[in-house]
Amino acid sequence: MIGAAMFEYFSAQGWRVQATTRRRDHVDAVHPYLDLSAPSQDLPAADFVILAAAIARIGDCESQPESTRRINVDGTLSVARDLAGQGSHVLLLSSDKVFDGTIPMRRRHDEPCPACAYGEQKAVAEAGVLALGDQGAVLRLSKVLEPGLDLLTGWARDLDAGQPITPFHDLYLAPVRVAMVARIAAHIADERAAGIYHCTGAADHSYVDLARILVAGMDRDPELIQPISCEAANLPAAARPRHTTLEMTVEQARWGLTAPLFEVTANDVIGCLG
User: Does the pTM of the predicted model rise above 0.90?
Assistant: First the structure.
């Protein structure tokens, strides 16, 4: 989702863009082949590289730490170092999960303290990209919310059928839209900026709050919302931090970008569900 949006955004800004694929049948002039589990060293040269691919499911990283690390750390850093060696500026898309979620508004130079394997992998990948010096940048993201997410489409389908939905009352998100991610990435690309950057919503809200906005937007009965606990769904503790927000002081001062309000992002996304 994010990679596709980046392709469209940078193309619209006049960049000549290529987007890698690991599907052999999708390879063409603008889609070179790349499998991060066994990356080749013959990728085309580029002025700017966005490392967007990863195994981001926390459960997968917990249950398969070695195979996911080969992609999220080893393969990612192999590509980063190879392309930086060719002169590319490299941007790694990272995550709020490099922190343990115990406090809100994490600062960019706080020491990473991940509570899950995915966060640990991202923290190691961050360190590798930042070690590239002036050629390396990291963009940490909170939850990226878009209409095509399975969760939202599934909820909407159930509500249309008059069926209840069961959002978690103890799982939290501070959502942003992919367009904002692309805007910050474009600023980093234009300036060849190095260091750590953040893209996050203004405050954490529960998934029940998201469900309420969806129900209101669809004009459905609020009684169809039947909240449940993460524990009842056997969601690992590492996958349910209380806080996911990140401070955005640099992005505001430098580019005039502020963390969007939860209600604004949620209503924008839900309004696009059709």
Answer: yes
**Contact present, 9 and 182 (Cβ < 8 Å):** yes
CA distance linking residue 79 with residue 232, whole number of Å: 40
Which secondary structure element, helix H or strand E, spans residue 211, and what is its range?
helix 207-218
CA distances from 46 to 18, 28, 174, 246 (A): 9, 17, 33, 30
Q: Which domain holds residue 53?
A: 2-271
Average pLDDT, the chain: 94
The pLDDT value given to residue 44:
84
Torsion of CA 115, 116, 117, 123, to 10 degrees: -50
Count: domains in the chain: 1
For strands 136-141 and 89-95, give the pairing: parallel
Q: What is the pLDDT of residues 154-186, one digit of tens each?
A: 999 999 999 999 999 999 999 999 999 999 999
Question: What CATH number is associated with residue 67?
Answer: 3.40.50.720
